[in-house]
Design a protein that fits this description.
By secondary structure, the chain is of the alpha/beta class. It contains 16 helices and 13 strands. The two termini are 36 Å apart.
Length: 440
């Protein structure tokens, strides 16, 4: 096959065959197709779309571009969670230790920040010494011995996705249901799971802006999972404002640890509620109970009795991290400067736009503007208010932590644009939009 001919067909909106998609994935993985041609393929797919068959074939080709891990030696039903990405979304750091502490094995292979959204690996790497680059032998051992492992994609796991994931981030081809589905599901199916809970975000800070698009994405991923013999549950959740109150890699570790210690603040209730709900669905898929309320109680108990935090400390130690930093936050990267954004009038918070806050955080240094951008793990912001909250003139809404004043100046227009105050009372946002329990 000649890839230029395949590219022409996709450019013209024609459907590709399974063999053509397999050819593209294999050739690009082996560096036989340059980035500029792969970028053109991604843009053509983004603009013209992929059929359901093309999406399934792309997922399969990416899945089998590397090794599919065998975790049959690990007792129990292996369950993972995946979020489609949001601002302040650090639920993985909370729910993985909760479920593992209860006996549900959680093999979690995660990604880095994509566009304006944060990445689990970037957060974990803000813990001094934490190694997300373990080999598959260590990955299998930790899941077997400790019920949890938190790593990035190895060279063996869906290498095609690893290359395409980075390329999508810098070619503005992220927000496409088929490309998102193939990326997520190829990686998740390769990690050796039996079941998966999907947290599909919706709203201004999500890749899917409407509930309809989010539900379509959820059902597409569920279809792929079911075709591969996996149990899948999906939640559609709000991403019009940041989840929790901390944004930025080390800051989000602190927030997650505080919640695992049972020390959540009132403005972090949304993060706590979502983390407990996601954990509960993982507990159900893990076979511990069929009752949602009981599963939520089990998740809360693991926080109250300290077992979830202990499990997190355990995996931090096992992956080379300094677990003492989870008790002494001064050992985590800390920004040297602080800037307070205050309300210019009294009223109610009408909007705290997650998209512009996320973009501001990227320009501050918490995310990547280019493929080779270096993240500053210390910078970020603390959101002091939520939509619907009463605010007085002069009261702090955003507390920005920064190291570079020029980057702060680049970020401030986005933070300013994110805040809207109204004199009329506004209702809090609804966090859980819909739950899809396996039906297609």
């Amino acid at each position: 096959m000649h890839f230029q001919e395949i590219l022409e067909r996709k450019r013209d909106g024609k459907s590709l065959t399974k063999e053509e998609i397999q050819f593209f994935v294999k050739a690009y993985t082996k560096d036989n197709i340059p980035d500029y041609q792969a970028s053109a393929f991604l843009m053509a797919s983004y603009l013209n779309g992929l059929t359901i068959d093309e999406t399934v074939w792309l997922t399969e080709a990416m899945l089998h571009s590397g090794i599919v891990v065998d975790l049959k030696s690990v007792p129990g039903i292996k369950v993972d969670k995946h979020s489609t990405g949001g601002v302040g979304d650090k639920t993985s750091l909370i729910i993985a230790p909760i479920c593992a502490a209860l006996g549900v094995p959680v093999p979690m292979i995660s990604g880095r920040g994509l566009g304006h959204t944060g990445g689990t690996l970037d957060k974990l790497e803000s813990i001094p010494g934490f190694n997300v680059n373990l080999g598959l032998d260590a990955y299998q051992r930790l899941v077997r011995d400790y019920g949890i492992c938190l790593i990035g994609q190895t060279q063996e796991i869906a290498p095609a996705d690893k290359k395409l994931y980075a390329l999508r981030d810098v070619t503005c081809t992220v927000e496409n249901k088929s490309l998102i589905s193939a990326s997520i599901m190829s990686k998740k199916l390769a990690e050796g799971i039996d079941a998966l809970v999907l947290d599909v975000k919706t709203g201004c800070g999500a890749f899917m802006k409407t509930e309809q698009d989010s539900e379509e994405l959820a059902r597409l991923m569920m279809s792929i999972g079911h075709k591969m013999g996996k149990k899948v549950t999906a939640l559609i959740t709000d991403m019009n404002q940041t989840l929790g109150s901390y944004v930025g890699n080390a800051l989000e570790v602190i927030e997650s640890v505080d919640i695992l210690k049972g020390q959540a603040l009132p403005e972090q209730k949304d993060l706590v509620d979502l983390s407990i709900l996601l954990s509960a669905h993982m507990i159900i898929l893990g076979g511990l109970t069929e009752d949602l309320d009981e599963a939520k109680s089990m998740a809360m108990k693991s926080i109250e009795d300290g077992s979830a935090f202990l499990k997190f400390k355990q995996i931090v130690e096992q992956q080379g991290g300094d677990a003492s930093a989870l008790d002494n936050y001064s050992k985590l990267p800390t920004a040297g400067e602080k800037h307070l954004m205050k309300a210019d009038s009294s009223g109610y918070i009408k909007s705290l736009n997650a998209l512009t806050i996320g973009k501001g955080a990227v320009y501050l240094g918490a995310g990547r503007i280019a493929l080779d951008s270096i993240i500053d793990p210390a910078v970020g912001l603390i959101v002091k208010k939520k939509v619907g909250d009463r605010v007085k003139a002069g009261e702090t809404i955003l507390e920005i932590r920064f190291n570079d004043e020029s980057k702060l100046n680049d970020a401030l227009p986005y933070f300013n644009k994110s805040i809207e105050i109204t004199s009329e009372k506004t209702a809090p946002l609804t966090l859980i939009k819909k739950t899809i329990l396996g039906e297609i």
